[in-house]
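A favour, since you know our structure tokens better than I do. Could you add the entry underneath, on a fresh line?
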Amino acid sequence: MDNEDQQASQHQWERYEFAKKERRALQRSGVPLVETYEQFISRITHELGV
């Protein structure tokens, strides 16, 4: 894996972590969520390719 690929992979993981933090913030604020946590993780990893 070259440096550019490593940077892209790191960026995808950063986006994954950000998405999880945003979901937690929504949950804490009482926003009703339509997908389970497992569904969310499955969707976000698929969308980000991680």
User: Anything to note?
Assistant: The CA atoms of residues 35 and 43 lie 10 Å apart. Residues 3-48 form one domain. The helical segments are 3-28, 37-48. The two ends are 15 Å apart (CA to CA).
